[in-house]
Structures are given as C-alpha cells and as structure tokens.
Amino acid sequence: KCKRNPALHRVIHSVQKSNNGRAPWASDLKFGYCKRGFWVNRMMCCKDSPSIMQCTSWRSWGGVAGGDDRGEVELGGYAFYVMVSVAMASYSALLVRSFAKYAAGSGIPEVKVILGGFVIRQFLSIWTLITKAVGLVMSVGSGLPLGKEGPYVHLACCIANLCSKYFSKFTNNEGKKRELLSGAAAAGVSVAFGAPVGGVLFSLEEVSSYFPPKTMWRSFFCAIVAAMTLQRLNPLHSGKLVMFEVTYHHQWKWFEIIPFVVLGAVGGVLGTIFLRINVRVARYRKTSRVGQYPIMEVAMLALGCSLVNYLIVFLRGSQTELLAALFSECKNSSQDVWDELCNTTRAPWVLSFLLVAAVLKLLMTAVVFGARVPAGIFIPSLATGALIGRMVGFAMELLQAQVGDSGFFSSCVSTTRCITPGIYAIVGAAAVLGGVTRMTVSLVVIMFELTGGLEYILPVMVAVIISKWVGDAFGRDGIYDEHITLNGYPYLDNKADFSFAERASDVMSSASLCCISLHGNTMRSLEELLEAQPYQGFPVVTSQDEMLVVGYIARPMLGRVLQRARERSGVGDDTRCTFTAGAPAPRDASFVDLSPWLDQSPIQIVETTPLDRVIEMFRALGLRHVLVTRHGQLVGIIKKKDILEHIQIFHQRDIRSRMDSTV
Fold first, then answer.
1. What is the mean pLDDT of residues 496-508?
2. C-alpha span between 461 and 426 (Å, rounded)
3. What distances in angstroms separate CA 383 from CA 31, 146, 389, 551, 553, one per listed residue?
4. What CA–CA distance (Å, rounded) separates 565 from 575?
C-alpha cells in the first residue's frame, strides 16, 4: 500500500532534504563563498573556526572586489548582495513561467481545494515538483521575505500523487487518493518543522475537508516515518529534530500572562493588517499590467527588499538564523551581531531596530507573498511576531530592572533573572502566525515541537486563542481561504456554519440540463455534443421523454473513449454507441460499447432534500455534482458552483439586512 509504504515517505524527505541543505547555501551566497568549496555553506565552512566572524575559510564578496578601505569593502559587499539577490529571485520566477505555473506560491490553498473535491490539472505533476523544488531554493536564498516550510506540503502531495499512479487502489478511487494526499500533507509539515504530531493536526484542522479516523492514524504513521528519516539524514547537521531548541533556566511568572494576552491581541491585529494589504496587492496584481510581467515584478521586489534588508542588521541574514537568535537566551548568542539583542546600555537603539525590522518585515511579506515564485508564509510570519515579542520582552526586562522586585514584579524576589525575552519572542511568533492563518490547535503543537519547550505551551495557547478571537472580529478567513476566494476556486469551507430554509429544488439547475439517451447515439452525435456543450459530464437517461437515470459519464472519459474508437478500422460517423451493459465488445466495427466507463451509481437526491444536508454531502464526500430526481426521473443537477453562488447571495442579503436594521 502506498500510504503505508515507508519508501514513499523517504522519497518525500529526500526531496525536502535537498531543499534544507541547499537553501542555507543559497542564502549565504549573497555574502560570499567558501574557499574550501563553492557549494559549501557558511556554517559548514566555518565549523572549525572559533566563531563565524573569525572564519578565515570564508571569502566575502567585498573582499573579492578588492581594496583595503573598509568603506569600499562594505560597499562592494552591498552591491554583490543586491545583485545576487535579484539574480536568484529572477531565475526562480523564470523557472515558474517556463516550466510550471502552479509551482508559484505555497500551494496550500490549491491543496485544500483538491482535497475538497476539485481537480486542478498539472498542479501535482512531476514538472511542478521539480520546478518548485529548485525554484524554492532560489526564492528563499534570494532574501525575499518568504519561507520554504509551507511549500513542503505541496511538494509532498506532488510525490504522493506520482506514487499513486502505480496503484489501482488510488487511480480508480478519488476518495482514496484524497486520503493519501491528506497523509502527504501531514508528512510535509512533519519534515518542515520536525513536528509529526503538528503535521497530523495541521492536515486535520487546516487542509482536509474529510478526515476519518483511519486517515488520522495513517497520516500519523506517515508523519512519524518522515520525522525519523529527517533525524536520520540530519540535513541541518545539528543532530536534532527540533529546529529551535530552547533550554531556558528561568520559568515564566503568572503576572506575565498580561503581556502574553497583549501579544495575542497584537498578533490578531497584525494578522488582519497583513491580510488586508496582501489581498489588495494580489487583487491589483491580477487586474493590472503588473501581472503580465511576473519576472520583472519579482526582480523589482528583490531589488527593493535587498536594498532595505542589508541596511537593517536584523534582516540581513537568513530568517532561520533570525528566529534562532530571537528565541535564544542572551548568553546563548554565538554571533556578535545578535549580542546587540541583549545590550541594555543601548536599549533605545535595540527597541527601535526591533520595531522597525518588524514593521518592514510585515509590509515586505504582505507585498511579496503572492508573486510568481515558490513561497511560504510560515517563517516570515513567525519572524515578524518574534521581533515584536522580543521587543516586548526586552522592554519588560528593562522595566523590571528599573522598578525592582516590588509591586507588579514582587514574584521576582527569589530569582536571579526574572524576565526571559526569548519566551516573549516565541509567544509573539505564534500570535502573529495565528492571526495570519487563523490556526489554533495545530499551531500550538507545532510551536511546542519546533522549540521543545513544553513548559511554555500555556502562554502560547493563551496568545493563539486571543489572536484568533481578535482576528475573527475583523473577518474569519485566514490567508489560505482569502487566496482561494481571490482565485475563484470552488471550495466549501468545512468550518463555516450555514442555516438555510431552502431545498434542493431551489438551487438546482434544470433549464440547461443536458443528458445523453441510453440508445440512439452515434459517434458523430456524441462528438458534436462534446463540441457544443462545455459541461464536465453528462447524465445518461433511458430516453429524453422518460428521463429515468441510468448513470453518469465524465466528459474527459467520454472524449478519450471516442478518440480511441476512432483509431480502430471500420468505425465511422454513423457507428452506433450504446451504454447498455452486456453489449458486444467493440471488436464489431458497427458497435461501440460505452458501458464499462459509465458510472451506474451516481449520487442522487430527491428534490425535497434540505439544502443544509446537501452542503454536508458536498463537504464530506468531496462531490462536484449531485443529480436531483423526482420518483426516479431526473429533474435537475446541483453543482458545487451553484452552492457557492447561493451562499454568496445569502451573505449579501444578510449584510444588507444588517445595514437596514442599523439605519
């Protein structure tokens, strides 16, 4: 079984291991190269040196440019930083445009739509997999405020889809294939963050529309194998599964719940601001001439971001290094530049830079996310929140040092160090990511597995739920749901509640109903039907007068069967086609049997079925359509598009009624 085969999960991880290994190299390439090998990243190049700043094996681009003057070296490094960043980002956009347009973005919105029952052709193809894997290294390495973790879900689903083609269990059953993709999504998050449990919960909470118990434990097995393979292969050369392990020696105090709640509220507000800006930019990108020149747009974005990032010391390096420094204790900082985070003598400078870096990171990410390059949103959101949280924690530390162990800080009397800014960074990171994605349970577990800090799970829970409440006050849709709506995908949110008084007959399409009779069809008549009608499938009835349902045949299947029949000798325009089971095989040139490709048990409902029940059927079964009958006779068809249009009309009426009642 493909779903239970560890080989599938090892393939998933091998692709993502190459991304984990190459992304740091691509990011370091903006600063210089290793003398021991051009392909070696800075950390591995300087592993034998006392510190990265004292590494003699690393050659900076400023030094290559020549000159002994410090200003010339710095200017040369700045110029190379910008040029390499623009080149990498442009190359990533070129790959997407040339080979696979669906490799752009994180891919999670489309995965949600596919698991909801919609088909997006070529989205899970091998070209999309290769293009996204290579382009992701370039786009993240360019320094654009994008992450590589979210796209791992798309990469894992591509591999699962390619694997499923070798097993008839999945090729002949769309429901089984969607269960396989749910497990692949869990594996993607598992290797992205080293979070197998968080991956399963992410697939359950955020991605899957239908998640039965058997899918849960299979996804859990999938995530476990992926995590074990991750630890065995050790792509980050740390020997640990946890990405940002924290070992604070000072527990948080109960009075800190108040700033944690504040951070949660700030995270909800910042998430809402991010969504508003990003949706407006994405809508402008789709409706203006900017969208017609994706490579030029990405190059200009990379130019602007690199010019700004180099000037802000906290944004100059990789986002992973930034998060590791923000989450750490002061004494655990190993790079001179990060020691400034704990410099109390320059407190105003540190607070100002943290605030400026957070604002710039939020704005740049909101503008860049959605450009035509492979990109994720997890790490940039975490970095923004960590900057805000570190700033609040540092301010609390300064306040406690100024006030002393009295009043609000009376519980600090028996401790040598009362406030740990790193805890605030973790809480702030979770709050902002929760505000952007509206994730709750899965986010808390991912943060726990990401940092290994079980004792800090309560502050994270408080911040995430407050962020969710505040964000929902401005709108319930997260970033993925917003992009689903923006792209016009037919998706029924399984978290939305509806209460309709209408029945199936009020929503069904009957005027444009196009059926195929059981008998009396020829090759010419069916081919003309395909040319004249745009529908993706056709109900098959006994006759146009009787309209008793016999089955349903999909348009792609009918087209392929007719095309293959044309290749046989003796088949012409007047050759008879029938859907009757048990008819002679198509060896007879005067006969084409279509019954093997006929779905003889399509989903049918009666016209009096409540609309609420119809919506639940679409959600649970991932349906694209249902046939509506009256005493066995076909009277209409309900497509997912019809449901969505009715929901939109309902929402518009609800808004107008609220406005009228307010007036």
1. 83
2. 11
3. 21, 10, 10, 54, 50
4. 10
3-state secondary structure 126-181: HHHHHHHHHHHHHHHHCCCCCECCCHHHHHHHHHHHHHHCCCHHHHCCHHHHHHHH
CA distances for 613 relative to 94, 174, 211, 610, angstroms = 46, 22, 18, 5
Specify the amino acid at residue 31. Answer: F
Query: pLDDT, tens digit, for every residue of 41-65?
Result: 777 777 777 766 667 777 777 766 6
pLDDT value at residue 405: 73
Nearest of 375, 285, 291, 365 to residue 104 by alpha carbon: 375
Structure tokens of 432? 């902002």
**Is residue 584 predicted with pLDDT exceeding 60?**
no
Proportion of the chain in helix, strand, coil states, percent, rounded to 5: 65, 10, 30
- The helix (H) or strand (E) run that includes residue 534 is none
In this structure, which amino acid lies at residue 199?
Answer: G
**Alpha-carbon gap, residue 425 to 263, rounded angstroms:** 10
User: Which residues, including other chains, have CB under 8 Å from residue 506's CB and lie 6 or more apart?
Assistant: 611
pLDDT single digits (tens) 587-642: 544 678 888 888 888 999 999 999 989 988 888 888 888 999 998 899 999 988 88
Residue with tokens 């050790």: 234
187 neighbors 223 (Cβ within 8 angstroms): yes
